[in-house]
Amino acid sequence: MGTRRASKNGSSGSGGGGASGGATGSGGKDADRRVGRRALLIGTAVAAVGTAVVARDELTRAWWRVPGVAKPRKEGEVDYTGAKWVSASDANWRMADRPDDFGIDMVIIHVTQGSFDSAVKVFQDPQHGAAAHYVVREDGHVTQMIRELDVAYHAGNRDYNERSVGIEHEGFVEKPEDFTAEMYEASARLTARICARYDIPLDREHILGHVEVPGTDHTDPGEGWDWDRYMKLVRAAAASRTSTPA
Ligand SMILES: [Zn+2]
């Protein structure tokens, strides 16, 4: 989410910078309808080289990791231990089978421009057209709303959506004092875990702000987001995890 730069299309939504309205409405544009074609391509590829793929990968992959075979899902299951599950409207994401159909190599940092509750609420609204995988509250609580398997409409860029996990943070771009120590730490632990899961390098090429996504008109997480502090926390969380099993 986040505030827009000078509104290009004049639909900047409700006043007060709330999380509702058009703040992330542009995410709807990447609600691409080409999933059918993509699925078709995958299906064809599997049919053509399926045997070779299975042979090559059989030592390192479980059967369900073969592209085109959907992984088992359980209602309410989360990808991050400790996260609370609240499902987003299925209009705000699309089903995928990541990281097998699309590799995940980015974490994208957002700021909600509103309260935690308002962000969770709009992500449940099918009219909103956008949602992130996770929302982190000021006290460090983490809610997951979309499985990492799936593509969330959060970056306003189809390619980046397919390749990333999106994390929203309660607060306002203009009020960096909203970014509490608890929030930074909780988010850093979450990002470290995501990066470990998909082998994502812990650098700013791969952990980026919404503002850095090509084509976006959003400014979050804003100048007030302390990247040095955040990246240090992410690396520290990753280092501490190496001694404790997942
Ligand atoms: Zn954003």
Could you characterize what this model shows?
By secondary structure, the chain is α/β, with parallel strands linked by helices. The chain has a single domain, classed as Lysozyme-like. 28% of the residues lie in helices and 11% in strands. The protein has helices at 35-57, 116-123, 158-163, 181-198, 227-241; strands at residues 84-85, 93-94, 106-111, 134-136, 142-144, 151-152, 164-169, 207-209. A hairpin with a 5-residue loop joins strand 4 and strand 5 (142-144). Helix 4 crosses helix 5 (227-241). It starts with 34 loop residues before the first helix and ends in a 5-residue tail after the last helix. The structure holds zinc ion (ZN). Residues 1-2, 110, 210, 218, 220 line the site of zinc ion. Residues 12-28 have a biased composition (Gly residues). It comes from Streptomyces phaeolivaceus. Residues 93-222 form the N-acetylmuramoyl-L-alanine amidase domain.
Which strand order spans the largest sheet, edge to edge or round the barrel?
1-5-4-7-3-8
Q: What is the subunit arrangement here?
A: single chain
Which sequence of SSEs, written as H and E, runs from N to C? HEEEHEEEHEHEH
Tally of individual domains: 1
Helical content class? 25-40%
Q: Would you give the CATH topology?
A: Lysozyme-like
Structural class: alpha/beta
The bound ligands are: zinc ion
Number of strands: 8
- Which outline best applies? globular
The average pLDDT is: 81
Based on the coordinates given, report the CATH architecture. Answer: 3-Layer(aba) Sandwich
Return the CATH class: Alpha Beta
Poorly predicted regions = 6-64
Please identify which CATH superfamily we are dealing with: Peptidoglycan recognition protein-like
Q: Main beta sheet, described?
A: 6 strands, mixed
| First-residue to last-residue Cα separation | 30 Å
Number of helices: 5
What is the CA-based Rg, rounded?
18 Å
Estimated share of beta-strand residues? 5-15%
